What does this fold into?
Amino acid sequence: MNEIDPRDDRRGLEDTAVLSELNRLVDELDPPPADLVDRVKFAIALESLDVEVARWERAGSFAGVRGGQTGTITFTVDNLTLMVNFTSTGSRHRIDGWLVPAGEHTVEVRVADHQSSCTRADDGGRFVLPDVPAGTTQILVHLVNSRGEPGRTVVTPTIML
It folds into this structure.
């Protein structure tokens, strides 16, 4: 039988050397994105933490947004669906969106290192933001209740425009 002597420090040194080399390889071959910390801070830096996070339902052709084409994403949470279409206009984007159920809710688009853009959906739930800068982006929908009073806020996961 092979017995291991706990007083033998060589085995611990070998393990440490292997783990150190593995750490070096991971950093070299798959490093974290340089802007990871900034992206995380942006995602959690909402003024009000009392928000509901919508789920990304369908990506459609969204991958084309980076390539200058249009792309559509659908987000859902409880009884709200938000569909947005992104159209690249050079270094900026046009966002066309629809809320279901429809209502005159305030829509805010946050882009890292830029001022928020706001608009109001019409009574059919349609809204447009014609000049949104590229970058790490979140969409917030500030819902109003049937009496026109502020209600809950829904936020999308961050996306890269």
Observations:
- The CA atoms of residues 85 and 125 lie 14 Å apart.
- The chain has one domain: 36-160.
- The domain at 36-160 is CATH 2.60.40 (Immunoglobulin-like).
- Confidence is low (pLDDT under 50) at residues 61-69.
